[in-house]
C-alpha cells in the first residue's frame, strides 16, 4: 500500500529542516509572499509553495522511473544492469568509440 | 557507422566529417604518450594542445559592397582578411564599434562593461598581423560569466559583484592569443538563468530587431552577446548554453550560433550553472564566422579534463566553406525531420517548410522524416531536465549560507537543487546514458543531422547544435531553427549551414539603427569622422529602465535554463 502523500505542513517542515541541515536559512528571505524590492528574492511563503510543488512533481517522477535493463527488461534485478550513470555521455561516447 | 578513417599523416582524413571518424586508436596513443610524460606534462603552456589538430584552411571570402560602405557591417571573416592584408586597422574597427556603443547602447543595453581605453590600446598594438590570420585584430564581445583578467566578471549576480579575476577563462585566453580584441562584457540573465536582467530581475537588454519593444523575446541568457552582434557593436561574441542560451538568442536575433559538443571547448574560468550541461560557444553573423570562433576556442585544456582524449578539432573553416556556391554540400548528409516540425499554418511552420525545401535542392542532402526515440518526452522534459539543479546548488552553497538574497531573483532553482536527493540524481545520470544510447542507435540510425524544436534534449546529453536564420515574421522579427548533430559533428553542421547560407540571404539582413542620429557609416579607406559619444575609460552598464519590466522569482525559475 502506497504511503499517504505528505501534507503542505509536513512538506514545509521537511523542506525547512533539509535546508537547515545544509546551513541554509530561508528566514533570510522576506516574510510573506512579497519579493524583496532590492534583490528581487521571493518571499518565504512564495518560495515554500514553489519548493512544495517541486517535491510533489520532480522527486516522485524520478523515483518511480525504472531504467530498462538488458532487452528492455523492467525486472528490478535486471534493470540494475542497464545504463550505468554517466555525467558526460557525449564525452564518454568518444572514449568508448560509440 | 562506417569504419573510422585515419589520414596518412596521423591526423584526420578530411574527406569525412568528424562524426564518422571516432578515432579511439589515436586517443589511446595520446594517452600513452601523456602517461609517459608524467609529471612533466604540467609544464605545458596553459592552452597547449596535446591532441593533433587540423591546420585550418585559409579564409577566403568575398568582401560585400555593404561591408565596404560601413566597416561595422563586415563579418568577422571579412574583417580579418582586410586586417591581414593591411587594408584595415584593428584600431579603426574598434573605434567604429565604440561609436555605435556610445550611440545606441543606452537603448540596446547589451553591455555590462565596455573597456574602451583598453580595447583601443590593444588594437593599436596589433600592427603586425600574421600571414594567415583567423581573427587577428577583430573586436569581440564576451558574456559576463567568462573570467577576464582585470575586468569585473559579475555573471549578472550580487554574488560576483566586484569580482575581478586574475586570469582569463581558457577560451578567452585562446581568442586573445589569436589576436582578438575584447571590447567588454555583455549583459546576461542572472547567473545565466533567464533573459538578461539585473540581478534583481529588471529587464535590461532588448532584441536588436525591436529595440523599442522590450517584450519581444531577445533570447536568453546570452542576450547581450546576441544583441551586441546583431546591433553591430561587435564582430562576433561568445556565450554559454545550458538550456538553449546560444541557440535561443541566435534564433531570436538573426544570428548563427554554434553550441559545440560537451568537451570541445574548455569550461575552465566560466562561472558554472550546471557542470555537466554548460557549453561555451560563439554567436556569430554566419556559419564561417562561427567556424572561425570555434576553431580558435576549441581544443584540449590541461585545466579541464572534459576536453581531453577527444577527437582532434577538424578544419572547421574548410567545413564552413561552401562547395560549388552552396549547390552541393561538402559531405552527403541525411537531414532528419522530427514529427511536428512543419505542422500547422504558423509563420514558423511555413519558414520551416521553406527551409527544408531549400535544403532538399542542395546536391548531397536528403531530407528524411524520422521518428523520435522511445520515452522522448519523459526523458527530456520536466523532472529529468530538473536533474541538473543540484549542480548549480553545490558550487554556490557557501554563498547561499552567507545570505540567500545574494542569489537575487534566481534563488528558487538553487533551493530546488538543494532538495533533490542523491538517489534521484543517480537515476537522472542513468537516464542520460539511456537517452544518448537511444539517440545514437535509433535517431541517428535514420539521419546524420536532425532539426530541433527544443535545444534541451541535446543539452542534456551534450550533443552539438547549430542555430541559423531561416526567415522573418510579418512583424519583422527573425525566425530561426536549430540543427543537431552527432558527437563532435560540428563540421557537418557547419557544412550544411554553409550550403544553406550560400543559397539564402536571411543571415545578411541587419536591423535598423534605433536612432537615426547615430554615427555616420564608416566606409573602408576613408578618414574617420569624430563622434562625440564614443565611450572612454571603462564604461559601466547603461542605467536599467524599470518601464521595461521586471521578472519575478517564479518567472525566472520557470524560464531558467
Name the descriptors.
heterodimer, A: 98 residues, mainly alpha, 4 helices, 0% strand, B: 561 residues, alpha/beta, twelve-stranded mixed sheet, 19 helices, 12 strands, disordered N terminus
Structural write-up:
The complex is a heterodimer of chains A (98) and B (561). In chain A, helix 1 crosses helix 2 (44-64). The radius of gyration of chain A is 20 Å and the shape is elongated. Chain A is 47% helix and 0% strand. Chain A is mainly α and 98 residues long. Chain B has 19 helices and twelve strands. Chain B has a twelve-stranded mixed β-sheet with strand order 8-7-9-11-10-5-6-4-2-3-1-12, with helices on both faces. The chains are: A mainly alpha (98), B alpha/beta (561). At the A-B interface, helix 1, helix 2 and helix 4 of A face helix 13, helix 14, helix 15, helix 16 and helix 19 of B.
Topology:
The complex is a heterodimer of chains A (98) and B (561).
Chain A: H1 8-21, H2 44-64, H3 76-79, H4 89-95
Chain B: H1 24-37, H2 65-69, H3 76-84, H4 90-108, E1 111-115, H5 116-125, E2 139-143, H6 170-177, E3 181-186, H7 223-230, E4 236-241, H8 247-252, E5 256-259, E6 279-284, H9 287-297, H10 316-319, E7 328-337, H11 347-360, E8 363-369, H12 376-380, H13 382-386, H14 390-402, H15 411-419, H16 422-443, E9 449-452, H17 456-461, E10 465-472, E11 478-485, H18 490-503, E12 538-540, H19 553-559
Parallel strand pairs in B: 2-3, 2-4, 7-8, 7-9
Antiparallel strand pairs in B: 1-3, 1-12, 4-6, 5-6, 5-10, 9-11, 10-11
Helix pairs in contact in B: 4-5, 9-18, 14-15
Largest sheet entry of chain B: 12 strands, mixed
Shape designation of chain B: globular
Alpha-beta classification of chain B: alpha/beta
End-to-end separation of chain B? 33 Å
Structural Rg of chain A: 20 Å
Strand content of chain A: under 5%
Q: Can you list the strand order of the major beta sheet of chain B? A: 8-7-9-11-10-5-6-4-2-3-1-12
Number of helices of chain B: 19
Amino acid at each position: 500500500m502506497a504511503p499517504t502523500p505528505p501534507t503542505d505542513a509536513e512538506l514545509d517542515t521537511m523542506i525547512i529542516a533539509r535546508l537547515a541541515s545544509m546551513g541554509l536559512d530561508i528566514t533570510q528571505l522576506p516574510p510573506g509572499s512579497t519579493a524583496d524590492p532590492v534583490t528581487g528574492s521571493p518571499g518565504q511563503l512564495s518560495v515554500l509553495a514553489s519548493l512544495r510543488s517541486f517535491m510533489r512533481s520532480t522527486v516522485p517522477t524520478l523515483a518511480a522511473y525504472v531504467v530498462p535493463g538488458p532487452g528492455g527488461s523492467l525486472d528490478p534485478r535486471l534493470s540494475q544492469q542497464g545504463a550505468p550513470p554517466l555525467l558526460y555521455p557525449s564525452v564518454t561516447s568518444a572514449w568508448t568509440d560509440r | 557507422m562506417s569504419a573510422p578513417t585515419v589520414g596518412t599523416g596521423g591526423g584526420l582524413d578530411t574527406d569525412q566529417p568528424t562524426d564518422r571518424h571516432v578515432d579511439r586508436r589515436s586517443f589511446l596513443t595520446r594517452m600513452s604518450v601523456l602517461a609517459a610524460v608524467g609529471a612533466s606534462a604540467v609544464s605545458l603552456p596553459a592552452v597547449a594542445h596535446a591532441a593533433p589538430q587540423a591546420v585550418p584552411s585559409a579564409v577566403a571570402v568575398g568582401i560585400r559592397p555593404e561591408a565596404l560602405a560601413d566597416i561595422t557591417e563586415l563579418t568577422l571573416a571579412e574583417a580579418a582578411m582586410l586586417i591581414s592584408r593591411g587594408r584595415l586597422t584593428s584600431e579603426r574597427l574598434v573605434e567604429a564599434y565604440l561609436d555605435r556603443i556610445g550611440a545606441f547602447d543606452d537603448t540596446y543595453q547589451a553591455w555590462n562593461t565596455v573597456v574602451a581605453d583598453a580595447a583601443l590600446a590593444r588594437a593599436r598594438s596589433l600592427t603586425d598581423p600574421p600571414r594567415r590570420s583567423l581573427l587577428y585584430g577583430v573586436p569581440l564581445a564576451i558574456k559576463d560569466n567568462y573570467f577576464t583578467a582585470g575586468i569585473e566578471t559579475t555573471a549578472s549576480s550580487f554574488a560576483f559583484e566586484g569580482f575581478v579575476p586574475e586570469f582569463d577563462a581558457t577560451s578567452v585566453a585562446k581568442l586573445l592569443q589569436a589576436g582578438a580584441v575584447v571590447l567588454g562584457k555583455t549583459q546576461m540573465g542572472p547567473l545565466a538563468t533567464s533573459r538578461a536582467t539585473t540581478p534583481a530581475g529588471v529587464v535590461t537588454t532588448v532584441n536588436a530587431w525591436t529595440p523599442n519593444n522590450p517584450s519581444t523575446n531577445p533570447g536568453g541568457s546570452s542576450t547581450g552577446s546576441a544583441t551586441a552582434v546583431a546591433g553591430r557593436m561587435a564582430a562576433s561574441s561568445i556565450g554559454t548554453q545550458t538550456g538553449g542560451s546560444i541557440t535561443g538568442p541566435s534564433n531570436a536575433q538573426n544570428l548563427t550560433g554554434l553550441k559545440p559538443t560537451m568537451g570541445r571547448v574548455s569550461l575552465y574560468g566560466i562561472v558554472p550553472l550546471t557542470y555537466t550541461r554548460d557549453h561555451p560557444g560563439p554567436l556569430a553573423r554566419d556559419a564561417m564566422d562561427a567556424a572561425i570562433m570555434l576553431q580558435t576556442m576549441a581544443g584540449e585544456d590541461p585545466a579541464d579534463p572534459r576536453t581531453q582524449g577527444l577527437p582532434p578539432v577538424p578544419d572547421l573553416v574548410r567545413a564552413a566553406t561552401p562547395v560549388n556556391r552552396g549547390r552541393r554540400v561538402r559531405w552527403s548528409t541525411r537531414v532528419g525531420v522530427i514529427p511536428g516540425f512543419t505542422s500547422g499554418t504558423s509563420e514558423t511552420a511555413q519558414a520551416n517548410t521553406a527551409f527544408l525545401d531549400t535544403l532538399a535542392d542542395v546536391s548531397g542532402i536528403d531530407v528524411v522524416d524520422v521518428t523520435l526515440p522511445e520515452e522522448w518526452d519523459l526523458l527530456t522534459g520536466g523532472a529529468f531536465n530538473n536533474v541538473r539543479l543540484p549542480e548549480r546548488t553545490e558550487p554556490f552553497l557557501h554563498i547561499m549560507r552567507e545570505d540567500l538574497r545574494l542569489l537575487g531573483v534566481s534563488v528558487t532553482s538553487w533551493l530546488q537543487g538543494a532538495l533533490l536527493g542523491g538517489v534521484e540524481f543517480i537515476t537522472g545520470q542513468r537516464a542520460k546514458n539511456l537517452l544518448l544510447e537511444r539517440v545514437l542507435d535509433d535517431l541517428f540510425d535514420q539521419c546524420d543531422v536532425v532539426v530541433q524544436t527544443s535545444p534541451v534534449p541535446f543539452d542534456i546529453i551534450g550533443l552539438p547544435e547549430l542555430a541559423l536564420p531561416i526567415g522573418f515574421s510579418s512583424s519583422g522579427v527573425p525566425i530561426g531553427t536549430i540543427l543537431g548533430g552527432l558527437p563532435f559533428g560540428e563540421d557537418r553542421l557547419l557544412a550544411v549551414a554553409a550550403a544553406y547560407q550560400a543559397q539564402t540571404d536571411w543571415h545578411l539582413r541587419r536591423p535598423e539603427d534605433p536612432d537615426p542620429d547615430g554615427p555616420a557609416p564608416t566606409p573602408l579607406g576613408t578618414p574617420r569622422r569624430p563622434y562625440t559619444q564614443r565611450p572612454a575609460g571603462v564604461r559601466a552598464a547603461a542605467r536599467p529602465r524599470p518601464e521595461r519590466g521586471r521578472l519575478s522569482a517564479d518567472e525566472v525559475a520557470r524560464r531558467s535554463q
